[in-house]
């Protein structure tokens, strides 16, 4: 068996005649043109494999640089949600009314011990 794609002027090395003849919807001339087009692409890719690999590496590098310099991501949920929504306007009003809570931490401590219940009931009038 010879090298693949050596006789690519009319057909690809593998036998496509059977699959092409099964599709009766396409005219014979159109099937031949499609086969010739793809066989020429295969032949060029086979004979110039180094150039094809270099082309793919160059396009991958260009895509990487484009993504690195042009794409940005802002994870701030305040910028993702529209400020025109009613709950966002309420939140902004709350921030303006109580600026001390802007950078505060809220810590909740819960316990299953009965001493906490006694302290809770002792604090009530």
Give a summary of the structure in a few sentences.
The chain is mainly alpha-helical and 125 residues long. 58% of the residues lie in helices and 0% in strands. The chain has 2 domains: 17-70, no CATH class; 77-122, no CATH class.
What's the order of the H and E elements? HHHHHH
Secondary-structure-based class equals mainly alpha
Number of domains: 2
> How many helix segments?
6
Secondary-structure blueprint of this entry?
Blueprint: H1 17-22, H2 28-47, H3 49-70, H4 77-80, H5 86-97, H6 114-122
Task: Give a written overview of the molecule.
By secondary structure, this protein is mostly helical. 1% of the residues are buried. The chain starts with 16 loop residues before the first helix and ends with a helix. The longest helix is centred in the middle third of the chain and has 22 residues, at 49-70. The model is unreliable at 5-21 (pLDDT under 50). The protein is elongated and about 95 Å long. The chain contains six helices and no strands. The protein has two domains: 17-70, no CATH class; 77-122, no CATH class. It has helices at 17-22, 28-47, 49-70, 77-80, 86-97, 114-122.
């Amino acid at each position: 068996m010879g090298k693949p794609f050596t006789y690519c002027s009319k057909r690809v090395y593998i036998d496509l005649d059977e699959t092409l003849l099964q599709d009766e919807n396409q005219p014979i001339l159109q099937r031949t043109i499609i086969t010739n087009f793809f066989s020429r692409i295969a032949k060029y890719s086979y004979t110039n494999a180094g150039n094809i690999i270099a082309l793919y590496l160059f396009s991958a590098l260009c895509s990487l640089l484009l993504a690195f310099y042009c794409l940005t991501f802002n994870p701030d949920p305040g910028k993702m949600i529209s400020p025109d929504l009613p709950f966002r306007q309420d939140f902004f009003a709350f921030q303006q009314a109580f600026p001390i809570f802007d950078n505060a931490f809220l810590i909740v401590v819960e316990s299953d011990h009965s001493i906490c219940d006694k302290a809770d009931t002792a604090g009530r009038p």
